[in-house]
């Protein structure tokens, strides 16, 4: 009896803990003021084009198993990011920011800030 109750309680706790995590993942790619994610996957930026508001922080995360960088000349430059490595930049000025991977220059993306 006691063990069954304890098991039910355990499942309820796990379910409660999982809920906020899956909700956060669903919003991962949505444009949120202050925090936007770009994933690097299969030699491309996803999304490659983004519109964000001034003050937004964009975080790039490398999901490939080889290193990539994020470079916007005279604006920002990441170090080589290994798998699951990330780089963040906060856009404080309006404009169009074109960037690329310095290791694979055919990988390009752009962010419009306004
Ligand atoms: Cu690259």
The number of distinct β-strands equals 9
**Cofactors and ligands present?**
copper (II) ion
**Chain-averaged pLDDT:** 83
Rounded Rg = 19 Å
CATH topology of the largest domain: Immunoglobulin-like
Strand content of the residues, in percent?
35-45%
Helix percentage range: 10-25%
SS class: alpha/beta
- CATH class category name of the largest domain: Mainly Beta
In short:
With 114 residues, the protein is α/β, with parallel strands linked by helices.
Could you characterize the architecture of this molecule?
With 114 residues, this protein is of the alpha/beta class. It folds into 2 domains: 1-28; 31-113, Immunoglobulin-like (Sandwich), CATH 2.60.40. Helix content is 22%, strand content 39%. It is built from 1 helix and 9 strands. The protein has one helix spanning 2-26, and strands at 36-41, 44-46, 49-52, 57-62, 71-72, 76-77, 86-90, 95-101, 104-113. A 4-stranded mixed beta sheet has the order 2-1-4-7, with no helix packed on it. It has a 3-stranded mixed beta sheet with strand order 3-9-8, with no helix packed on it. Strands 5-6 form a two-stranded antiparallel sheet. The protein starts with a helix and ends with a strand. Mean pLDDT is 83; it is low at 13-32. Residues 68, 101, 103-104, 107 line the site of copper (II) ion.
Task: Pick out its properties.
114 residues; 22% helix; 39% strand; 9 strands; Immunoglobulin-like; single chain; 4-stranded mixed sheet; 3-stranded mixed sheet; binds copper (II) ion; 1 helix; alpha/beta
């Amino acid at each position: 009896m006691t063990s069954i109750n304890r098991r039910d309680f355990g499942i309820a706790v796990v379910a409660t803990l999982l809920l906020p995590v899956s909700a956060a993942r669903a919003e991962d790619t949505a444009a949120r003021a202050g925090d936007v994610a770009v994933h690097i996957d299969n030699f491309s930026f996803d999304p490659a084009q983004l519109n964000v508001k001034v003050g937004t922080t964009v975080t790039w995360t490398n999901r490939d198993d080889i290193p990539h960088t994020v470079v916007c000349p005279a604006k920002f430059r990441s170090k080589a990011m290994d798998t699951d490595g990330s780089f963040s930049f906060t856009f404080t000025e309006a404009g169009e920011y074109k960037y690329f991977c310095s290791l694979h220059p055919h990988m390009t993306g752009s962010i419009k800030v306004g």
